[in-house]
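task queued by scheduler; priority normal; single chain, no ligands, no partner chains; default sampling; output format set to structure tokens
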Amino acid sequence: MWRPFLVAVVMATCCATNVAPAQNAPAKTQNGAPVDGPAPTSDQDQLLRDAEAFIRDLYAWGPEFTLRVGPATQSVAADYYRVPFNVSYQGQSEAGEVFVSKDGKSVLRGDIFNLHGDPFTGVLDHLHTAGNPATGPADAPVTLVEFADFECPHCREFHEAFAAIKAKYPQIRLIFKDYPLVDIHPWAQTAAIAARCAYRQSPDAFWKMHDTIFNDQDNITPNTAWDQLNGFAKDQGLDADTFKTCMSSQDAANAVNANRADAIALGVLSTPTVYVNGRPAVGGDPNTVAQYIQYELDKRARK
């Protein structure tokens, strides 16, 4: 990994993508929500040149790294500009951002939040949950949105742990969004399309397919995935011809790709990543997810 500006991901607890195409990721500040504001005028060109020099020195990016910095826009902090950047090296590309003071004297990394606002306000709006498989009450006080990859062993671990979470908190809702890490998992995209095709025949069938894929994960290979997934559909009583047609359709692939694009736009770098009422739990650690659920329920009770 050559991305030291990103949030560190513990490889033992999640599956991490090799490349997050920055060209698909819109500029963002607070967890995916863009902050609008006028860009600096041309007399701040020096500020951007200074920012570029600082970023290169900070991350030891020599001339072999292609670095694009800016444009700068007003951040939520009155005295700071938000300065996005994009770096490319040996065919890989990634985006990041810093905050540069208007006097050109200081740089901040990380997120800037409104002290008197909810730090996760609006995140659910950017998750685009409509049209995705869901389980649990529609009016749930706590909604979990999971970005997962069917070939990821840590996603399977979260799948296994979720049964206990659901038993403890039956009032929660889980929404599943595909994020097949195609660079490292060769049959993940095919599995995501298969689950999507099951969902289109029956929402209940999605969860049966979901469970079957994870339970049989170790036995699926790139060479056998197509036949096995079609076999799963047949075993679940789905219409075989309709399922095969869907598996070959661009429409089903587009639905999967749209979810993947959402993950990239939100800065999701690994699976599973679970948002609990907008609060991200990278790696889907069951204890952390349960902590977030309890906190959200307690917060609701205090209102």
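post-processing summary
- Residues 165 and 290 are 7 Å apart (CA to CA).
- DSSP finds nine helices and twelve strands in the chain.
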